[in-house]
Design a protein that fits this description.
alpha+beta, Cytidine Deaminase, domain 2, five-stranded mixed sheet, 5 helices, binds tetrahydrodeoxyuridine
Length: about 150
């Protein structure tokens, strides 16, 4: 039987097929696992005005949050080719807003992956007091004061 990690990678590979990437031809798929075991997926959606492109990870997260989800345990990311795909810096910050202890599965197109925690990939994420309090966690004021 497939492990939860293999299922998450498989969901990301399926999402990758729906990527809209006519400019870079780099198709990315992401699958986000919630604390209650539901999977939300996303793909990259590019735009002729290149800077408006949204990464697969953020599409998956926004998809989940717009459905009322706030707690996540793992995220799988895949793209084309034998190399693993790692989340960009902007996505790391956005993911850190919700789940600092998220497990990130960085996969390749053959189903292989390397796992790391978001904390390892993105220590000391920027937070504001208000957002930290709203999420029920310790925040800072963005100046490093505690
Ligand atoms: N991309 C993602 O979807 N996720 C990442 O973490 C890195 C980059 C997309 C954005 C763009 O459509 C394409 O990959 C090339 O940068």
């Amino acid at each position: 039987m497939d492990s939860w990690a293999e299922k998450l990678i498989a969901a990301a590979l399926l999402a990758r097929e729906r990527a809209y990437a006519p400019y870079s031809s780099f198709k990315v798929g992401a699958a986000l696992l919630t604390a209650r075991g539901k999977i939300y997926t996303g793909c990259n959606v590019e735009n002729a005005s290149y800077g408006l492109t949204v990464c697969a990870e953020r599409v998956a997260l926004y998809n989940a949050v717009s459905e009322g989800e706030r707690e996540f345990t793992a995220l799988a990311i895949v793209s084309d080719g034998p190399s693993i795909t790692v989340p960009c810096g902007a996505c790391r910050q956005v993911l850190a807003e919700f789940s600092r202890d998220l497990k990130i599965l960085m996969g390749n197109s053959q189903g292989g992956y390397v796992a790391a925690s978001l904390e390892e990939l993105f220590p000391l994420a920027f937070t504001l007091d208000a957002a930290g309090e709203a999420a029920g966690k310790e925040g800072n004021n963005g100046r490093g004061e505690i």
